Amino acid sequence: MYIIPAIDILDGKVVRLSEGNYNQKTEYNFSIEEMIEKYRSNETDFIHIIDLNGAKGDFSNQEKLFDIIKKTDMKVQYGGGIRTIEQVKNLLDAGVHRVIVGTQAITNPDFLSDLSLAFSKKDDLANRIVIAIDVLDEVIKYSGWMESSPIKLIDYIDKCLALGFFRFLCTDISKDGKLGGTAVDLYKKLLDHSPFIKLIASGGVSSMQDIEELSQLNIRSVVVGKAIYENKISIEEIKKWNLKAITTL
C-alpha cells in the first residue's frame, strides 16, 4: 500500500477541511509550489491535488493549478470540478496521471457510460480514471459533499465495475480532517463485496499505526493530508514506507 500526500486548495490556499465543511477549514502558511517541492525533494513521486473551489463549480483556481501541474515531473492524481469528458481528456493529455471524477458521474446518468466508451478500452486509460466515492453514513455525497445521492453505495460500485472502471477513491466524510482514525469497516465492506477493485483510502489517518492497520487490507494506496501538516506523520516516514510499497501502487 502506497502513501499519497494530499494538497487541497481553496481560494488559492493550501487548506484542510473537517468533515468536508467549508466553514471548518485550517489554512497553512505555505504555497502549493512549496509543498510540491518539499515532497519531490524527499523522493515522493506521487501527489493528490484537489481543487475544493472546483468541487463547488467555482473554477477560479484551475488555470493556476493546471500551470503548476504541467511544470512538475511528479505523478499527479487530480480532482475537483471535472464536469466533461473533454476535461478528462485534456487533463490526461496535459500529463495528469490520474483524473478523479465525482459529482458529474453521479448527477449525469450518461456521463460514466460515455466516459467508458471514450476511454475504457484505449491504452489502459480506465486505470487512470478514479471514481470518487465520498460517503457519510454510507450515503454518497457530491457537489463538495453538500448534496446527497439516492444511489446506494454497493449499487454504485457495481455500476462502475460494469462500465469498466475499477479504481475508486473512498472518503469517509465523518473521518476526514479529524485525525481520529480511518474507516476500516467501510473499506472491509467494499472489498468483501468486490475484492478486485483498486481501492484508495482517504480520511482520518492520524499516525503510522493507522497506515499499518490499513495495509492489512487489500488497499492499493491511501491519501494523507492533515496528518502530514500537523506533524503526526513525517515525510521521512512516508519515504521509507513507500520504498517498500512501490510495487503495489
Descriptive report:
It is a single chain. 36% of the residues lie in helices and 28% in strands. The protein has eleven helices and twelve strands. Strand 10, helix 8 and strand 11 (198-202) form a beta-alpha-beta unit.
Oligomer: single chain
Uncertain runs are: none
**Order of helix and strand elements from N to C terminus:** EEEHEHHEHEHHEEEHEHEHEHH
User: Taking Cα atoms only, what radius of gyration do you get, to the nearest Å?
Assistant: 17 Å
Q: Based on Cα principal axes, name the global outline.
A: globular
Count the E strands: 12
CATH class: Alpha Beta
Q: How would you sum up the major sheet?
A: 8 strands, parallel, barrel
What is the number of independent domains?
1
What is the third-level CATH name, the topology? TIM Barrel
Q: Helical stretch count?
A: 11
User: In the CATH classification, which architecture applies?
Assistant: Alpha-Beta Barrel
- For the terminal residues, how far apart are their CA atoms? 7 Å
Structural class: alpha/beta
What spatial order of strands do you see in the largest sheet?
1-4-5-6-7-10-11-12
- Beta content: 25-35%
**Share of helical residues:** 25-40%
What's the topology here?
Blueprint: E1 2-10, E2 13-18, E3 21-27, H1 32-41, E4 46-51, H2 52-55, H3 62-71, E5 75-79, H4 85-93, E6 98-101, H5 103-107, H6 111-119, E7 129-136, E8 139-142, E9 147-152, H7 153-162, E10 167-172, H8 184-193, E11 198-202, H9 208-215, E12 221-224, H10 226-229, H11 235-245
Parallel strand pairs: 1-4, 1-12, 4-5, 5-6, 6-7, 7-10, 10-11, 11-12
Antiparallel strand pairs: 1-2, 2-3, 7-8, 8-9
